[in-house]
Amino acid sequence: MTLSRLITLFHYLRYSGGIAMMFNGFPLVFFIRDTLHIGPATNVFTAFFFALALLLMFPTHLFIRLYKPNFTLLKYAMGFLVIAFYHFIFMNYSEFDWFIELGNFLFTIAFIFLLIHVPNDVKEVLMVIIFLAALFSNLTLVYSLLTDPSWRIGMRAAVTFENAGAQEGGNPHIAARNGVICLLAALTLISQYKGALIRLFLFFSIIFSLAVVVLAQAKSSLLALGIMAAFYMTFQANFSQMLRSAKSLFSVRNAVIFLICWFLFGLLLSRYGDLVGVLYGYWGNFQDKIMDIIFTAFGLQISGTANIDASAMGRVSSLSFFQNALEGAPHVLLIGLGYKAAFLDVPLVESIVNHGIFGFIFFAGFNYYLLVYSIKELRKNSNPLSLFLAYFFIYFIIMLISNGRPYDVSFWFPYALMIRFLGIKYLDSPQYKENKNSALTTV
């Protein structure tokens, strides 16, 4: 390998490291801050973490060489962010930490800006780094649970927060989301490698990630995985492909892999005999939660033990709040109530309540086009990174109606990566050649 290629690889690795930290950095932040007790247990540590990520992404060709993002997504994204920032400055009637809110805006814009400087060819390295970072975060979650004296099997898996004022325990949705990311990344990569050991490693990573999602007991993540499977069967699976896959199962290599997996599974059951019972308990709890949600939302008591689900009732109350506002003061919804004026925990509804009809048009329009580009990508499978982002957006579809706020960086950091790499027509064109010699290249 020549020196120039080594230098290029180094830059791709640092770009990828910074992007992975921004894209899915919260599990690492909580592990370092709250489990290893390194750094202050405040948002200042989180700010330093993301600042380091942006520093890793800093290009050597600032303003000299730019790369075309998805301009449709970029226009809708910037439209909503401008409206939200205007309301943040001139229409805020709730108490919040200005340091955190302003930092969220600055980090989001800086991330989008630096991504436009990241070369297209980084996508192969980036996919591997995202997977390895997510797998490491899964391992840190297990370590955190094993060293947490208050955690027991049956409780939701999450890193316990230590900063003052934080919610009791941790946020299991962050653990579940990381599990989804690791699972999707491994599934995307497994078709790119032919080596038996690598494929076996990726296969166990998929099983491990699924176990993390189950341990976190996040209904939204489990539902998203089910919808992803349905999208796969609709857009990517076909009879001939399934026939080839079935034939490949009978190869000697796969037979050896199957025997190894069977042996390890038997060893696991012999050592942890109550594992099956624990899994049944998780499944029963999941079923009960689904029955509670159906009863809360629709009043249908399919199960005799169904009760009101507090989380689902919060969403029902949010929709009732929106309906009352629409009937009682529709003119208010024209411009919105203001930045974070109402907490509804339903991002799509909150975008119109807090930011008016234009805020809703930009936010909903942005997600609509993301859905369109995701479906196109699922049909053509142009490259692993775009395919991964397309499937990951399906997870966001569930979150948009069930969890979070429209300006959360947990939305916008992944959104930024989608703006840069999803729906880019030229990205895998055989005619595409990166021009590195011109003074200003926007390829």
Mean of pLDDT? 82
Number of strands: 2
Radius of gyration: 23 Å
Largest sheet: 2 strands, parallel
Structural class: mainly alpha
Low-confidence stretches: 430-440
**What share of residues are in beta strands?**
under 5%
Shape: globular
Placed side by side, the strands forming the largest sheet appear as 1-2
Helix/strand order: HHHEHHHHHHHHHHHHHHE
Number of domains: 1
Helix share of residues? 55-70%
N-end to C-end Cα span: 27 Å
Number of helices, where a helix is a run of at least 4 consecutive DSSP H or I residues: 17
Structure report:
Keywords: Membrane, Transmembrane, Transmembrane helix. By secondary structure, this protein is an all-alpha fold. The chain has one domain. It contains 17 helices and two strands. The protein has a two-stranded parallel ribbon with strand order 1-2. It is globular and about 70 Å long.
Key phrases:
single chain; about 450 residues; mainly alpha; 17 helices; about 70% helix; about 0% strand; globular
